[in-house]
Design brief:
By secondary structure, the chain is α/β, with parallel strands linked by helices. It has eleven helices and 13 strands. Helix 1 runs parallel beside helix 2. The structure holds Salicylyl CoA. Salicylyl CoA (2NE) binds next to strand 9 and helix 4. Salicylyl CoA binds next to strand 9 and helix 4. GO terms for molecular function: 1,4-dihydroxy-2-naphthoyl-CoA synthase activity. It is an enzyme of class 4 (lyase).
């Protein structure tokens, strides 16, 4: 498969192939743990994914066959957060969670190994998870002095139920890909050598569907959980769709032509 580089970054690879953007955390020496720079890189790539209309689906993965992502890089964990190159403690992976939720296109976690700690949260936040059979899932927060009571807990509970979500966080055990699939937090499990083929097939199937329909489904499913913000994003897309209608054009045209708008000519569906 001929992936072409979209943009060079320090901590990630960002590539394109036939409508698919692939973001690969490229820090195999720390099992693809993220530091603040990694999240800044991913946030920038997500902005590009949002802007480029030739990108239909985004795939998130990690370099190698050991880890998808092992969470926050413990080497740079300081007081108050993960410390960037200027000495500022940050938790900017949360901005990435918001960007994944907010992107009006599907984001698929292609889990090629450990999805642990903040790396587990990352796959949870993605719209779909496709895992290789060697993948391992789990939380470590309460074992290593951390936790994510946001999407990493409450959205997880929507996938696996409250009891299992509490088990995952309270015990910090590891689960096989098959167990994760049975729990409902993984869509499918395939042999490692098939992982990318399978993911690309899912992407291509999704891209044959109506992008606007997919977008509204993602917005609607998010809105139930995301409170005012979810409603705002759903409503924003309703406004966008209204702007595509002649009825909305009539309002603007009438204003510019200094006349009363003729809204009554538009149908009122039951
Ligand atoms: C992932 C896991 C279970 C793998 O275990 P194993 O035994 O197969 O490998 P090993 O030897 O532990 O790891 C391989 C190399 O990767 C580094 C290790 O230090 C090791 O390096 P060397 O000794 O070979 O030089 N490595 C792995 N994970 C790392 C990490 N997160 N930061 C820095 N280096 C890391 C095992 O490695 C593991 O349990 N890793 C730690 C997982 C973890 O606790 N992550 C942080 C959770 S908190 C978090 O992510 C978070 C949050 O809860 C809320 C908000 C934001 C972040």
């Amino acid at each position: 498969r001929n992936w072409t580089t979209i943009k060079e970054y320090e901590d990630i690879k960002f590539e394109f192939f036939e409508g698919i953007a692939k973001i690969t955390i490229n820090r195999p020496e720390v099992y693809n743990a993220f530091r603040p720079q990694t999240n800044f890189d991913m946030l920038n790539a997500m902005d590009i994914c949002r802007e480029r209309s030739d990108i239909g689906v985004v795939v998130l993965t990690g370099t190698g066959d050991k880890a998808f992502c092992s969470g926050g890089d413990q080497n740079v964990k300081g007081v108050g957060g993960y410390v960037d190159e200027h000495g500022v403690p940050r938790l900017n992976v949360l901005d990435l969670h918001k960007a994944i939720r907010s992107l009006p296109k599907p984001v698929i976690a292609m889990v090629n190994g450990y999805a642990i700690g903040g790396g587990h949260v990352l796959h949870v936040v993605c719209d779909l998870t496709i895992a290789s059979d060697n993948a391992k899932f789990g939380q470590t927060g309460p074992k290593v002095g951390s936790f994510d009571a946001g999407f990493g807990s409450n959205y997880l509970a929507r996938h696996v139920g409250q009891k299992k979500a509490r088990e995952i966080w309270f015990l910090c055990k590891q689960y096989t890909a098959k167990e994760a699939e049975d729990m409902g937090m993984v869509n499918t499990v395939v042999p490692l050598e098939r992982l990318e083929d399978e993911t690309v097939e899912w992407c291509k199937t999704i891209m044959m569907r109506s992008p606007m329909a997919i977008r509204m489904i993602k917005r609607g499913l998010n809105a139930e959980l995301d409170g005012q913000r979810g409603l705002m994003e759903f409503a924003g897309d309703a406004t966008m769709m209204y702007y595509l209608m002649e009825e909305a054009q009539e309002g603007k045209n009438a204003f510019l032509e200094k006349r009363d708008p003729e809204f009554q000519k538009f149908p009122k569906f039951p």
